[in-house]
């Protein structure tokens, strides 16, 4: 199965080889001259001049000449508004991409020569493939390479042919359908195809299908952007987009991303944010200290980077470069790119004096990261070593931390809800309330003022507070609290330790 | 030259909370930039805006948050230390009103600032005639009994948006110390008790 995939790739590569590189170079030269001539804003540049700047468009084929600023859109149809400097950067990246294209062709031919490529042959190519992916996959090859890299072809082959169509239909009835409907029209409003009727329908179907396919995750805001990006890169093919999305997020069979990134409480994202914080501490200690001084949590800067895999933060072609490496190497790439962005713009970030301005500055520099070659070079060569073992040991530690805090939060929320249902509002800190209601000794203020300080003990303390309360007030509230306790005992007995929650005594 | 004036500006942290698709980002865009986009992109994480109301001597530092329930665990980071909160619901969508009530409750539980201003906002009032599903009287009654400001707005047709933010500005304590922006995240939402005198207010 794997072999046939790579053979397809080789075929695509041969097609590519047939296209005229000379023509492409001529257009590059024309554009470069135009850039030099205008000097300022180059929006006009993007409009095709009626002469030689629009070669090979007539046959309707997607041609990989240096034509990306054509019609004011990049290769994926995102509106571009460039300064002259940015246009020049794009041109430079594009010429590099052309050279990469030849290397990919050689690689493809090599991997299919010698009769029937086996898995072993690909494994031998691993280092070369990694290098090629880091340097970027040419847009025309991306579709086939991504499907192969992330295992989407394989995953698709393990299901019935009608699996996708069926899931898309069933998903329309899911509890997430309403949320999906809210987000579909507001996904990439600056992309004309995504906004078209065909684009909206495709996006809706992919998200419906995923919500049905993986009901534990269902729909999480940000997946709308992932699905749209996949549709754009994968030739607008819904089913392919769906399977790559599944390969990224499905965690029961080793998804590419860390588990529970998108699940109900985003706990995986919290873990990743804390890991990134550790890495910044090691790699960029001045920035880490600055963020500490501003009380700026890493999740303020990087939540959307990790949930959207940079596709809402970086220009689309830069984001696609991140995904090229991500789909081959895994999540470590996200940490590398995040560190590269922070490192490249550290002086600017250090100059911001509150978290809000820090966020704005980080967003602004990311949105203008047209120089995908430099960003990826810094990501892979400029932020030092980052063994997966280290990330995994951070993750294990941070996961325990997050689990504890989430459990404490849930305990608290459930108890609050139980109390609220009865119309009894705990408006003040429990210590004061207890003191007033019971008329007794003021309780140990440190313990009572911060019931959730020790996460594992917090539930117990909450229960004891409320038990004390119920001894002095009506039975209705007590019933409600008992119900709350039972609910919590049921949900979290394992994570908090079953002994913490004995059944309420009648 | 402008120094005496600048000194009088009170920086106030303001947070927007509410169900997804209720129009939080659109309200901020309308207020800060005077813009409205029919398909406003959904907010992932949060966004930050500033807007100065010179005549009110207020500089708002506005945190606009993601609305989906599962982003809830991020919210404390944005509302901690807030001087004001705008809780938005969609008047055509009753579930968003219920969610707004939960937000109000959570703010009351978890924000230490006893002077926190909370405004409840029924947005999309331009759709009131054809598809209102939350009666204005219900929302007003709830706001009154809970001690909230109440506004019905339309970010789309620019109804009541400026008034909302100006009213919030008017209610802010004038001598308030500059608010620290977002603090660190703690998922357990532990309330930080307000420093206050015993038995200072009712319960």
TrEMBL record, chain A:
InterPro entries: Rab-GAP-TBC_dom, Rab-GAP_TBC_sf, Rab_GAP_TBC_domain. Pfam families: RabGAP-TBC. PROSITE patterns: TBC_RABGAP. Residues 50-69, 101-123, 437-458 are annotated as: Disordered. Residues 444-457 have a biased composition (Polar residues). Transmembrane segments: none annotated. This is Rab-GAP TBC domain-containing protein. The lineage of its organism: Eukaryota, Viridiplantae, Chlorophyta, core chlorophytes, Trebouxiophyceae.
Automatic annotation (TrEMBL), chain B:
It comes from Chlorella ohadii. The keyword Nucleotide-binding applies. NCBIfam families: small_GTP. GO terms for molecular function: GTP binding; GTPase activity. This is Uncharacterized protein. SUPFAM superfamilies: P-loop containing nucleoside triphosphate hydrolases. InterPro entries: P-loop_NTPase, Small_GTP-bd, Small_GTPase. PANTHER family: PTHR47978. The keyword Nucleotide-binding applies. Keywords: Nucleotide-binding. Residues 178-203 are annotated as: Disordered. Signal peptide: none annotated. It holds the Pfam family Ras. Transmembrane segments: none annotated.
